[in-house]
Structures are given as structure tokens and as C-alpha cells.
Design a protein that fits this description.
Order of helices and strands: HHHEEEEEEEEEEEEEE
Number of helices: 3
Helix content: 10-25%
Number of strands: 14
Radius of gyration: 20 Å
Shape: globular
Strand content: over 45%
Distance between the termini: 52 Å
Largest sheet: 14 strands, antiparallel
Structural class: mainly beta
Length: 325
């Protein structure tokens, strides 16, 4: 019979799972920048790309870090980071030996280790378990990917799932350390951590309520680095159809555009797969500058700018496509 650790993470390899450790302090976002007519659209784009990497099967330019389920070459639907993490946590808490497994060689509160092969390369897994025959609160797993290639995507680096709690809702902390993805000419890396809470049982045909808190992430791809700091979010996702609804609060920055803003959602964003249908957010910058971004039609924003913070929107950008942000 396969060992407990192999069953925990076998699907993580096949579905591009991650490994853990480090990154505990997380990145620090730059100080707020002023929102002006020149950078208003870039400011909205910074927030939208960050949100898309979390929740959508992203179709914006920075989609590698969010598209963790399949490489571009396969044409398969690419999941956001949250859906990917929910699947990993579900694997961790459900794909275990049955209670009748003798658990031979497994000791209580043991550190289990195993190396699992990929199509090429490998993933090295260590799990600290409280009980040998079932998942328990306090269990944790760390996986280190070493040139692990599956379905054309190479994975390197570490992800950890720890601080597991199995109360009315399942929750855990995810930490990434130099977790890198290479898909053809695209390269991406995730560092940092977040806490995720979800129902103990997932019904893929129903909307699943997910809480994302203490998000502190750096997502780098092809020369562009997005930073999410002190971000909290509430989402509902129907995994069978990739429908989503979410809110987002916190600070988001983008190195390429030189933008750092605080965001709060006024109307939840909603859509399906790579289509954004509705939602509104307010972004705040330095010197009381702010902008209101409203989804005015599918995949288009209308952006209203108050650059001097006097309470009057002096500039409106109509029907800006998300691909242009």
C-alpha cells in the first residue's frame, strides 16, 4: 500500500502542486503613490491583475502566476491561485489512507519524507503528522520541487501548508519560498504567504465560500513584480463552471508601472473563467487622490478620477478594456 505522504501529494504533482517553507515575513509594498491622469488606468490595472491572479482563470498579460492548473500549450482552463490552493488543501485533508491501514512504520507525531518522481525531475516531500492513520489539526506538509516537469511546465522551489485547523471550516496557512514556474518563454515566481479557510466538504457544483486573510505575496513574471500586502478577501467560487464573486481590501503595488495603491471593493466582482461581468472598487493613493473603477460592460472598466482629493471626479475614462490596463 502506498504511504500516507505519497497519497497526500500524489495529485499535487499531477496537478502542479506546490511546496513550502520560508517567506514567513512576506514582502513589503512601497509607500502609496499619487493617482493622476497619467497613471489612473495603470493603477486600476495593477489591482485588477493582482485580483485576477488570485481568483480568475486569468486572461490578462500577467497570467502565468495565476494560471497554475495547466500550461498554455494544453489549452486547458488555467485556475487562479486560490482555486489551486483550495485543491491542494482538499488533497491534504482527504487523500489519505483509510483508518484500517495498519500504518506500518509510521510513528505518532512523526516526520515522514518521500521523493516523488515527475515526468522529469522530482518533488521532495516532508510531512509532520500527529496521527499515522488520519489527518489532524496541527499536521503540516512541505514540498520542495526540483526541476519537476509536468505537462510542459517546470516547477522549482518550496511551498508549505501548516497551521492546519479542522473545525467547522478547514483552514491552513500557505507559505511560498522561491516557487518558480517556467512555461515556454514565460517565467514566474511566487514568494510570501496567506491564510485560507474553506468548508470541510467541497461541492464543485455549488458556490463555495472562501476567506483569504493576511495575504502578503510577491508575484513576479517577465520583469513585472506585483506586491500584495495586508490583503484580505472574501470569495465565492463555483469550481465546476469557474464562476466567481469576490471582494478585496489591502495594498497592491506594481514595479513595472511604479504604482502603489490601497484598494477597497464597493461592489463584489463577479464573472466566470476569464470573463469579468460586474463589480466596482475604490483605489486610494497619496495626497488623498483616489479613483472609482466600475465594470461598465463585460471586461471593460469606466474609471473616474479625483486626483486632488477634493471630492470631485474631474476626469472619466470610459469603457477601458481590461486588456489595455
Amino acid at each position: 500500500m502506498r504511504t500516507k505522504i505519497a497519497l497526500i501529494l500524489a495529485s499535487a504533482v499531477a496537478l502542479h502542486g506546490c511546496g513550502g517553507g520560508g517567506g514567513d515575513e512576506g514582502p513589503t509594498a512601497p509607500e502609496l503613490t499619487r493617482i493622476t491622469e497619467a497613471n489612473a488606468q495603470k493603477s486600476v490595472g495593477t489591482v485588477y491583475r493582482a485580483a485576477a491572479s488570485l481568483y480568475e482563470a486569468s486572461h490578462v498579460s500577467s497570467d502565468l502566476a495565476g494560471g497554475l492548473a495547466a500550461p498554455k500549450s494544453t489549452g486547458a482552463r488555467r485556475k487562479g491561485l486560490v482555486a489551486f490552493s483550495v485543491q491542494r488543501l482538499s488533497d491534504f485533508t482527504s487523500r489519505l489512507p483509510a483508518a484500517t491501514d495498519s500504518g506500518a512504520g509510521l510513528a505518532t507525531k512523526a516526520a515522514l519524507s518521500e521523493t516523488l518522481p515527475c515526468s522529469s525531475g522530482a518533488v521532495h516531500v516532508v510531512a509532520d503528522v500527529q496521527q499515522p492513520d488520519r489527518v489532524s489539526s496541527g499536521d503540516r506538509v512541505t514540498a520542495t520541487f526540483d526541476a519537476c516537469v509536468e505537462q510542459g511546465v517546470q516547477l522549482d522551489g518550496i511551498m508549505k501548508i501548516d497551521e492546519l485547523s479542522l473545525d467547522a471550516r478547514t483552514s491552513a496557512r500557505f507559505a511560498f519560498d522561491g516557487f518558480r514556474m517556467t512555461d515556454g518563454t514565460d517565467t514566474g515566481q511566487i514568494d510570501g504567504s496567506f491564510r485560507l479557510a474553506m468548508p470541510a466538504t467541497i461541492d464543485s457544483a455549488a458556490f463555495v465560500a472562501i476567506d483569504l486573510t493576511e495575504v502578503s505575496l510577491r508575484i513576479a513574471e517577465n520583469g513585472r513584480t506585483a506586491t500584495l500586502q495586508n490583503v484580505n478577501s472574501r470569495a465565492e467560487i463555483r469550481f465546476m463552471t469557474d464562476e466567481f464573486r469576490y471582494t478585496l481590501q489591502g495594498r497592491v503595488a506594481d514595479s513595472a508601472d511604479g504604482v502603489s495603491v490601497d484598494v477597497s471593493t464597493e461592489t463584489p466582482f463577479s464573472g466566470a473563467a476569464s470573463r469579468l461581468d460586474a463589480g466596482a472598487m475604490r483605489i486610494a493613493g497619496a495626497e488623498s487622490s483616489h479613483a472609482l473603477a466600475i465594470v461598465s460592460s463585460p471586461d471593460h472598466f469606466t474609471i473616474r478620477l479625483d486626483a486632488d482629493g477634493d471630492g470631485t471626479f474631474e476626469k472619466t475614462f470610459d469603457e477601458v478594456p481590461v486588456g489595455a490596463l
